[in-house]
Write a structure and sequence with these properties.
The protein is built from 30 helices and 2 strands. The protein is mainly alpha-helical and 666 residues long. Among the domains are: 142-208 and 219-274; 280-355 and 402-427; 448-534 and 544-569; 581-665, no CATH class. Strand 1 (99-101) and strand 2 form a beta hairpin. Helix 22 (475-498) runs parallel beside helix 25. It is flat. One of its GO terms (molecular function) is chromatin binding. Residues 375-412 form a coiled coil. It is found in: Nucleus, Nucleolus. Belongs to the CBF/MAK21 family.
């Protein structure tokens, strides 16, 4: 120990210290601490640098200096009490931090936390992932914000001055491509707002070769260049929407592509509603019509359907309605009538003129051409009045011309619609029968009389084949379908009678069917439910149509009213047979249906008092017995029956029903 600590050993050269340590076996001495051995080894195998020499001196002071307070005592025992360092701490890297002085008087370097080299060299995957995610999020937010600002600035420039900045439409479209879903959505909607604002109120036709070769002014040239660029970019935007829709239809549900497809459908619908007069309307209608052919409705389906209905309601000329009906009917045929019934219900929104069968030549008859007269002198006041009248006449002629065009388009629309309806009814496409019958019923006043016999024949075949009530068939479907056929047939007859057209048609088949269907109705538990059972998600798909909100008892009441209330020459035999059977079957009805039936009977008796004599009289009229099981009202002998059902109704639990039953005996 004294050899190492002496000043002579510290002044030795590198060669002398090596000989000295080897001869004196300093490295094998067990009384020397580990730190001293490390310092000695460093002197042996490394040529010390000036900085290394200073560190060795500091290391010696740290391990071998003795506090002044304990000098003179047993030095060896003091060293024994000093804590040792272990071999595991030999490879601790130097930190080169400032030294500190401990409580026991030692001066040592500040301890550092031991970290393995592998941990420093290879950080964990979770740390890398978190760091990369945070970096990407910050970069994405910054880039997204920049893109949004760019879109807004370009759109503002185009809207402020479309003619000068029309070329920016291409930049607006290119920014939308190859971006995130949110940026693509924003880009599509931004372009939609721009086109809705800058598109003029007229359609732009392509220039002919003669017009291109002719000389034109600078303003005209700029205007034509603007129009050509606008049409080109507008078509590119429609192609982008169509391509996005196609990709979304092939993608899985709830994917990003499907979300963008829904946005594209919304853009197409807004374009049709806001600028239906502009170019490429046919392409937009094709996109919507194709969407309406899918069986299962979704949000885009409902939006397209509502767009079609609004176009029907807002169309004043009839041209757009004709294009839509033509496309829908062609697609329905291609799909072999396998579509959703809501597509056919859109036709119910069409508005037709009340006298669409007027000939166009009526104007020539009412306003014959006048002969030319010699020019007469007219005062200034008369000329001013004639000028004003001429302006009014021109406006009336314009309105009349529009009506004539509308009549022409309406004739074509009716032909397409009724052809579709007849094909559905004739071939018996079950999913579309109800919608077709409702359409025939609504437009019955516009059907030509020549088609009446064929249409009634189709309805009779439906009653016989599709809606025939047999023990092995579902009462729920047959009774409702049969009632709807009867309503359609009776509506056809009385609509034609209302417009004073004399026709003689045999409706006995429908009356007999209505009489025969009353007993199965009493066994039907769905008599007070709507005709169409919709899914919960899209339960409001067809709620605007009155037909879909009708219950079975309401449909029966409508048939009963058409047969007995609107006919001046009432057949008392048929009326008595219907009243007797209705009294019998209403015992199985729910309370609301019983009240509805009693109201029908009471109203009919009040209109024809002779029927009251059969209720309150105990006398029998005619010969034979009453046959309540036969399904023919003319052969049932209702005059020989007794109305014993009223006795039971008087004791009904409902006070309303018992009160009405008592009124029949007065």
């Amino acid at each position: 120990m004294t050899h190492i600590a002496s000043k002579e050993s510290q002044k030795r050269t590198y060669e002398d210290s090596k000989i000295f340590f080897e001869n004196n076996d300093v490295l094998q001495d067990t009384s020397i601490t580990f730190e001293a051995k490390n310092a000695a080894t460093a002197c042996l195998y490394f040529k010390p640098h000036e900085r290394v020499k200073k560190e060795l001196k500091t290391e010696k002071k740290r391990h071998f200096c003795i506090p002044q307070s304990v000098q003179g005592q047993n030095t060896e025992s003091i060293y024994e009490r000093i804590p040792r360092q272990f071999n595991s701490e030999k490879n601790t890297p130097n930190t080169f931090t400032l030294p500190i002085k401990t409580k026991d008087g030692r001066i040592c370097l500040k301890e550092t936390q031991n970290v393995e080299k592998e941990e420093l060299a290879k950080p964990s995957n979770e740390v890398l992932r978190e760091y990369s995610n945070k970096t990407v999020q910050t970069e994405t937010k910054e880039t997204s914000k920049d893109i949004r600002e760019t879109l807004a600035s370009i759109a503002q420039k185009i809207i402020e001055n479309p003619e000068e900045n029309i070329k920016q439409l291409k930049a607006l479209r290119e920014i939308t491509l190859n971006q995130t879903a949110s940026i693509q959505r924003l880009g599509l909607l931004t372009q939609l707002a721009v086109y809705k604002d800058i598109i003029p109120g007229y359609s732009i036709r392509p220039l002919t070769d003669t017009e291109k070769a002719s000389r034109m002014s600078k303003e005209t040239k700029e205007r034509r260049s603007f129009e050509e660029s606008l049409v080109f970019n507008y078509y590119a935007y429609i192609c982008l929407l169509s391509e996005t829709i196609k990709i979304g239809q092939k993608s899985p549900k709830n994917s990003t592509q499907q979300f963008l497809s829904q946005i594209s459908f919304s853009c197409v619908c807004h374009l049709l509603l806001s600028i239906p007069h502009f170019n490429y309307r046919d392409t937009l209608l094709e996109i919507i019509s194709t969407k309406l052919t899918q069986k299962t409705p979704d949000a885009s389906f409902i939006e397209c359907k509502e767009t079609i209905e609004k176009l029907f309601e807002n169309d004043k000329e009839g041209r757009i309605s004709f294009e839509i009906v033509k496309k829908l009917t062609n697609i329905i045929k291609k799909k072999n009538y396998k579509i959703n019934s809501a597509v056919l219900n859109t036709f119910l929104k069409l508005e037709f003129l009340s006298q669409s069968n007027l000939t166009v030549s009526q104007k020539d008859i009412d306003n014959p051409r006048k002969r030319k007269h010699e020019k007469q002198f007219k005062s200034k006041k008369i000329r001013k009045l004639e000028k004003k009248n001429k302006k009014i006449e021109n406006e009336l002629d314009n309105i009349e011309r529009i009506n004539e065009e509308k009549e022409i388009f309406q004739g074509k629309i009716l032909k397409l619609i009724f052809t579709t309806y007849f094909q559905i009814l004739q071939n018996g496409f079950t999913n579309l029968i109800y919608a077709s019958l409702e359409g025939v019923k609504k437009f019955s006043c516009l059907i030509n009389i020549d088609f009446f016999e064929d249409l009634l024949k189709i309805l009779k075949e439906l009653l016989k084949n599709k809606f025939n009530v047999e023990p092995n068939m579902s009462i729920k479907n047959t009774t409702k379908g049969g009632l709807l056929c009867i309503i359609t047939a009776l509506k056809l007859l009385y609509e034609q009678a209302r417009i004073k057209k004399i026709i003689d048609l045999d409706l006995s088949t429908f009356i007999i069917y209505l009489y025969s269907i009353m007993i199965p109705m009493s066994l039907n538990p769905y008599i007070e439910t709507n005709i169409v059972h919709k899914s919960k998600k899209y339960e409001n798909l067809d709620q605007d149509h009155a037909f879909n909100n009708l219950t079975e008892i309401d449909m029966f009441a409508e048939c009963f009213n058409h047969i007995f209330y609107q006919d001046k020459n009432l057949n008392l035999l048929k009326a008595s047979a219907f009243i007797k059977r209705l009294f019998t079957v209403l015992l199985g009805f729910p309370e609301k249906s019983i009240l509805k039936s009693l109201e029908l009977i009471q109203k009919l008796i009040n209109k024809h008092p002779r029927l009251n004599s059969f209720l309150n009289s105990n006398e029998n009229y005619g010969e034979g017995v009453y046959n309540g099981e036969i399904d023919n009202p003319d052969l049932s002998n209702p005059y020989l029956s007794f109305y014993w059902e009223l006795v039971l109704l008087k004791k009904h639990y409902s006070p309303k029903i018992s009160k009405i039953a008592n009124n029949f005996f007065r």
